[in-house]
Amino acid sequence: MKSVFHSFLIICICAIYVEAILFNLPPNTQKCLKEDMQGNQLVVGEYAVSEVPGQKVDYVVKDSKGHILSQKDLITRGKFSFTTELYDTFEICFTSKVPPHQRAVAHEVSLTTKKGAESKNYEGIGEAAKLKPLEVDLKRLEDLSDSIVRDFALMLKREKEMRDTNESTNNRVLFFSIFSMCCLLGLATWQVLYLRRYFKAKKLIE
Fold first, then answer.
1. How far is CA 105 from CA 98, 113, 168, in A?
2. What parts of the sequence cross the membrane (predicted)?
3. Residue 46: how many other CB atoms lie within 10 Å
4. What are 6-49's pLDDT values in tens digits?
5. Three-state helix/strand/coil letters over the chain
6. Rounded to an integer, what distance in angstroms lies between the CA atom of residue 173 and that of residue 67?
7. pLDDT digits (tens, 9 = 90+) for 104-117
8. Are 89 and 53 in contact (CB under 8 A)?
9. Is the pTM here over 0.90, yes or no?
10. Which residues contact 112 (CB under 8 A, 6 or more apart)?
11. How far apart are CA 89 and CA 71, in angstroms?
């Protein structure tokens, strides 16, 4: 029963924090994948690119400000890791380069990323601390719980920011609407008075 529970727990954790993707990279093109990540979070990735003679593929990991966190040329298979400092949008880009005289073939690229609790090597942590398998699973569950709490705190913060933005926008729209109505009423009043004076000057009305 315990082994079934452990397996189910590990599957749930992996389903949440492991992202795997497989796509084709056409010749002489670039494909980028973006994701928002929290600050102070370890991200580990593993990639594999199909080999095509005479063609090469490069990759680069950057943040929203253009800072390069990881980069490598002529890749086929490997890993990368980086730690985020602040909440930001990060992207990993794969670029295919083919000589103009060569017949080009699309590359098949597979990418697996792990972040937060799943990026840690709990087997190594358990061996170093001499923990029992159940204690290792509890440690994993504790880190997962902390990560979920941080996610909810971030979602609450973003919801508050969006609510404040909506309220500020509504107030501005209300004031602009009142100002527009006052302008229209003033313009209509001025137009009526002007036409009245004009008609009196022309002796069309008394």
1. 9, 26, 53
2. 173-195
3. 15
4. 444 444 444 445 678 999 999 999 999 998 888 888 888 999 99
5. CHHHHHHHHHHHHHHHHEEEEEEEECCCCEEEEEEEECCCCEEEEEEEECCCCCCEEEEEEECCCCCEEEEECCCCEEEEEEECCCCEEEEEEEEEECCCCCCCCCEEEEEEEEEHHHHCCHHHHHHHHCCCHHHHHHHHHHHHHHHHHHHHHHHHHHHHHHHHHHHHHHHHHHHHHHHHHHHHHHHHHHHHHHHHHHHHHCCCCC
6. 38
7. 899 999 999 888 76
8. no
9. no
10. 18, 19, 20, 21, 45, 46, 47
11. 17
pLDDT tens digits, residue range 53-101? Answer: 889 999 999 998 889 999 999 999 999 988 888 888 899 999 999 988 8
Instruction: Considering only the C-alpha atoms of the chain, give the largest distance between any 2 of them, rounded to a whole number of Å.
Output: 107
The topology (CATH level 3) of 2-119 is Jelly Rolls (2.60.120)
The tokens describing 43, both together, are: 């991200």
Domain boundaries, the chain: 2-119
Quick one: which of 64, 60, 51 has its CA closest to 92?
A: 60
Residue that has been written with the tokens 């599957």 in this structure: 11
Cβ atoms within 10 Å of 147's Cβ, excluding its own: 19
Closest to 47 (Cα-Cα) out of 65, 63, 70: 70
Under a CB-based contact definition with an 8 Å cutoff, are residues 28 and 55 in contact?
no
Is 18 in contact with 144 (CB distance < 8 Å)?
no
Partners of 58 in beta bridges: 95
